[in-house]
Amino acid sequence: MSDTQQADVPAAADSPADPRPDPAARLARGRAARARTPVEAHAELPTDPSRPDPVAILERQAASRLADLIPIRYGRMLVSPLTFYRGSAAVMAADLAGTPVSGVECQLCGDAHLSNFGAFASPERRLVFDINDFDETHPGPWEWDVKRLAASLTVTARANGFRRKDRAAVVLSTVGRYRTAMRDFASRRELDVWYAHADLGEVDLLVQNQTSKKRRKQFADAQAKARTRDSLQAFRKMTAIVDGHRRIVADPPLIVPIQDLLPDTDRAQLESHLRELLAVYAASLPMDRQHLLRGFRFVDMARKIVGVGSVGTRCWVVLLSGRDRDDPLLLQVKEAQPSVLAAHLPGRPARSEEGDRVVTGQRLMQAASDIFLGWARVSGIDGQFRDFYVRQLRDWKASAVVESMDPAALRVYGTLCGWTLARAHARTGDRIAIAGYLGDDDAFDHALVEFSERYADRNEDDFQLLRAAAQAGRITVENGL
Questions:
Q1: What residues does 120 pair with on adjacent strands?
Q2: Comparing 298 with 347, which gets the higher pLDDT?
Q3: Is the dihedral of CA 475, 478, 480, 481 positive or negative?
Q4: Do residues 469 and 55 make contact, with C-beta atoms less than 8 angstroms apart?
Q5: Taking all residues of the chain, what is their mean pLDDT, rounded to a whole number?
Q6: pTM of full prediction above 0.70
Q7: CB-based contact 246:319 (threshold 8 Å)
Q8: Which of 397, 362, 366, 413 minimizes the C-alpha distance to 197?
Q9: How far is residue 404's CA from residue 307's CA, in Å, rounded to a whole number?
Q10: How far apart are CA 367 and CA 450, in angstroms?
Q11: Interior/surface letters 369-379, b for 16+ CB within 10 angstroms, e for the rest
Q12: Within 97-163, where are the H helices?
């Protein structure tokens, strides 16, 4: 064996060359961090007179996005304080940068609000529950994700008309589940943590035990609906035969075929650019997935508007065909811009390509990822290089309608999200140190109840600032899209 090969072999466990601290030292690290930054400090939300204007933060984001879509983004954010919260991850990142930190880090989702969790198909064709949005993923303090999740619960609970007591109960349940799950993961072996996942069968037991008959039926219906939301369903809805060829149907401005966007550009030139993108993307896949992808050929492509916070970034739907035109594959190609956390976390490990950052973060944090998940950096028709990540458009995907949840349902859903986030953090950070920091009491849980109420107040103020900017003509808003 060569010297290079020997360098890649892990040191024997508990050998003198083993650089890893033992569990007792890791636990002591977490407890020492708690002594430096008491968990009660996480209730704080500093009020800095020099706090950046939240509208200005959103305007800076808009500068790198497609200008004709920005009014749609503002229109979606101005529906309610909840939709504003979903679209303002950059604003909260700036706020979190001024809060106390534990000093223990992991891979963050970066935008861990309630609606960024959901169900989708694993490669083994089981419905699983997990985080499903990683546009902002980045290494950082684990508590930033927990605060983003907890505040989203309070914002949602206010929108749903809950009393403060009920709002507090929801946050306490969620953060408490994160804490107890982390303690459980701290005691587990490495492979046990890596294999842990939330199968929908297990989730069903939780729902059965803690919600009403009506909610149980809604959950069962949602599972059944999720299994119909696949490429075939999207294929039937989004495409039609046009002049003898299968094409994506226009639904402007939400879906615009590429020929409608660039009518003066030769189709052969467009297809050349798209084949380049797909070839670069394919190289990011494992060899078996590259082989699978080679069984499909390019058919059509369209621009698609998705979400709230992502509106304005370039997002494409690519239609591919396998053995015949009734064997479709729909891929979503989404632009990856720098994480909103990056400017507030200098010096952390970074990927050279933003698509690689998103995909790597997703693979680290998710229990099971889409088999077609990959990335590419390509030059567009305008000559500018941009980063993208790619995944299937739909694969049994379903998200909860949190706006319709009563206190009991939101508690159950929040608890599930809390466990899921703990599992993702346990895979990528020092789970023993985090558990040591959180301790056995519920002081951190209560601190986040206070933080969440304070942040919900701030979120409502920021929502009004964006509304005032629209009324003053500072920003242009397009509603109803």
A1: 128
A2: 298
A3: negative
A4: yes
A5: 88
A6: yes
A7: yes
A8: 366
A9: 19
A10: 31
A11: bbbbbbbbbbe
A12: 142-159
